[in-house]
Design brief:
Number of domains: 3
Strand content: 5-15%
Structural class: alpha+beta
Shape: extended
Distance between the termini: 27 Å
Number of helices: 22
Largest sheet: 5 strands, antiparallel
Helix content: 55-70%
Length: 674
């Protein structure tokens, strides 16, 4: 467990080489760019170029989504684990020569998608208009006909259901003599379509009477009969559908260009990264300068590489006092997968140790204890191992996560056999139900003990594991203080706590309270109990008088010491937090046992076997998913709140080098330069 030492690097060169040098640094994947000092007035504005690169990436992404809609990619269930296609730096540059063509292709796909939308809208409009013509089918006159030489023609509809008798009664006031022709067409519950022909001079009065009842002319107005208008609309819709299908076929024919669009997306992302870095460098009229950090092991080789390929001046130096370089963690294969847990909380700050190595041991230990089922553990181990073996090109973040759950699975398997849990009590249930084994016989015996039979024993061990976890955290605090030369802080803030807590534990173990929890008395020699009392008194006095040893005012020192001594209640709550080890461990086993009992209810029959398999599979999948999530969340909590709370502040700056790894579809192979 360590933090990679960093060296500061200062680079100055000619302005014309700046972009090429940034591309080289990006391919090198080791240069962390710092914010530049106040930039010279002559620095070019890169915002416009950055905006173009980001828009081009968005263009490629949208084109890929459209292409995926009409020509789906033949991707398997585990396509996300495949990783990007590898290209050498030379192959990358060669493929980048076709970016303009790919951008034009993406714009063409977006334009075709827009035209598809327009054609679809035209077809929908035709459907709507044809539907509106339905009541007028059979009418042998144009829909827009309003009059002849002597007559007024009213074509429209009234809301609701009207009979001819009711309608004539309505019109009796406007035309008492009934000198008009009226025909009601086939309507529905919402409207009554009609055609009315009357003399021109009677038209206004009749139309006014109808309008008062909601009379409205047809939505569509045409100089053709409804049948002719419908035929025209049907033809227009067929044309729109044909155009839409033709455009879709044109997009589908471009599926062979998918890789070029994917490359356009990735290269645009990398260009945007370079341009953001470009905006953070300083530049004069003919020169530029930048500063940053590089891992000490790579510093000299990077310096030689840059000076060999560019006209630059490169200087390496150690970070100055008070300067906090970015943090890069380096751990072995066992601990490295849990680096993401530390990074989520915060990277080590100045003077802090990397807790990953020690935390990893407890992380796997506690995770396995919470899940504690050998069946679930073996599924995790086998599944993660297959994924890591079958998909070696998966992203580094995903690979670390898979490896972390692999080790969590190993721990879960071990704890499962120690507690006798293999899909709960599945082995015993199957043996008793289907193989005639006597119910009182335990087939799979625990190597240690069964928590369901003795939960209080597991509770005691949970507290013991918690004390060990917290004591290690306190020890790391002491290590950091001694490393920084703060001996008095170590004595008052660490050693005094060890004395007080160990003393209290020695006093608690033989007490009646602990006996009631453990279920059996723990006898300690009298001298050891007396030693515990002495240690507790020494620790309490040490905290009271020396917790604020640097304060000259004795009253303030005692007050702060008393407040520190009150922190023993915080230790008590922290230790009680480890009861979640019991709770989650029991939850996994209890739910699994209930599932097995439900599955075996139909007994030894063909139907019973089928029911058993279905309930067993479904139940254990759900139980594993729920309790795996619970174990993950609560293991993280024990690290973040209880363990890190004893010694770790975090706050270090993350090491983020310029890199070509921020891509989705392609991966640039590392060069052998330097």
């Amino acid at each position: 467990m360590s933090v990679v030492p960093m060296r500061k690097i200062l680079i100055a060169g000619t302005a014309g080489e700046r972009e090429a040098l940034l591309k080289q640094l990006q391919q090198g994947r080791c240069f962390h760019l710092s914010e530049s000092p106040a930039q010279a007035p002559g620095i070019p504005d890169v915002k416009e170029s950055l905006s173009r690169a980001e828009k081009r990436a968005q263009l490629a992404d949208n084109a890929l989504k459209i292409l995926g809609e009409y020509a789906p990619e033949d991707a398997g269930l585990f396509a996300s684990l495949q990783g990007g296609q590898s290209l050498s730096a030379a192959g990358w540059e060669e493929k980048a020569a076709g970016l303009k063509r790919s951008a034009a292709l993406a714009e063409s796909i977006l334009e075709k998608s827009k035209q598809i939308g327009e054609a679809s809208a035209r077809g929908a409009r035709c459907d709507l208009l044809m539907e509106s013509l339905a009541p007028w089918q059979g009418l042998d006159m144009p829909l827009d006909l309003t009059e002849t030489a002597r007559c007024r023609v009213l074509i429209g509809a009234l809301p609701g259901i009207w009979s001819e008798e009711t309608l004539r009664s309505l019109l009796s006031e406007a035309e008492p003599e009934g000198n008009y022709g009226l025909e009601l067409l086939q309507g529905d519950k919402t409207q009554t379509p009609l055609v009315l022909i009357c003399l021109k001079e009677k038209g206004p009065a009749i139309e006014e009477a109808l309008r008062k009842k909601g009379f409205a002319r047809p939505i569509i107005s045409s100089d053709k009969t409804p049948e002719e208008a419908r035929e025209d609309l049907a033809f227009e819709k067929a044309s729109a559908v044909a155009e839409e299908e033709e455009l879709k076929a044109a997009i589908r024919s471009l599926k062979k260009e998918r890789e070029n669009l994917q490359f356009l997306y990735d290269e645009s992302l990398l260009e945007a990264d370079r341009l953001r870095a470009l905006s953070r460098t300083g530049e004069g009229r003919r020169s530029f300068f930048m500063s940053g950090y590089v891992p000490a092991a790579r510093a000299e080789s990077l310096k030689e590489e840059l000076e060999r390929n560019f006209t630059v001046q490169v200087e390496l130096c150690e970070p100055e006092a008070g300067e906090d370089p970015p943090v890069l963690l380096k751990n072995n294969a066992f601990a490295a997968p849990t680096e993401s847990v530390v990074e989520s909380y915060g990277l080590p700050g100045s003077g802090e140790v990397d807790p990953t190595g020690i935390m990893a041991i407890f992380y796997y230990f506690l995770f396995g204890l919470m899940l504690s089922d050998a069946g679930y553990g073996l599924i995790m181990v086998i599944g993660c191992a297959i994924a890591l073996k079958k998909f070696p090109k998966m992203s580094q973040g995903l690979k670390k996560t898979m490896t972390m759950f692999f080790w969590c699975g190993v721990s879960t398997t071990i704890w499962g056999f120690l507690f006798g849990g293999f899909f709960g009590d599945a082995v015993d249930v199957i043996a008793h139900t289907f193989f005639g084994v006597a119910p009182e016989v335990t087939v799979l015996k625990p190597l240690w003990f069964a928590p369901l039979d003795n939960p209080m024993r597991l509770l005691v061990f949970s507290f013991a594991f918690g004390v060990a976890h917290l004591f290690v955290g306190l020890g790391l605090k002491g290590y950091q203080l001694l490393k920084q030369g703060k001996v008095m802080d170590f004595i008052s803030g660490v050693l005094a706590w060890y004395c007080l807590l160990i003393g209290l534990i020695l006093m608690l173990l033989p007490s009646d309270i602990f006996t009631s929890i453990a279920g059996s008395p723990i006898a300690l020699p009298g001298w050891l109990v007396s030693a515990g009392k002495i240690l507790a008194i020494i620790g309490a006095l040490g905290l009271l008088f020396f917790a604020a040893w640097d304060r000259k005012n004795m009253g303030l020192r005692l007050a702060l010491g008393a407040y520190e001594l009150y922190g023993v209640t915080s230790w008590l709550s922290d230790i009680l937090s480890y009861s979640r080890l019991l709770a989650l461990g029991l939850a996994t086993g209890v739910i699994a046992s209930v599932i097995n009992a439900m599955a075996a209810m139909r007994g030894k029959s063909i139907f019973g076997i089928i029911i058993f398999i279905l309930i067993f599979l479904l139940g254990h999948v759900l139980n594993m998913a729920i309790n795996l999530l619970g174990a993950y969340v609560h293991t993280n909590r024990l690290q973040y709140v209880e363990f890190f709370g004893k010694f770790y502040d975090g706050g270090g700056e993350e090491y983020i080098p310029l890199t070509t790894d921020n891509t989705k579809y392609y991966h640039m192979e590392e060069s052998n330069n330097g």
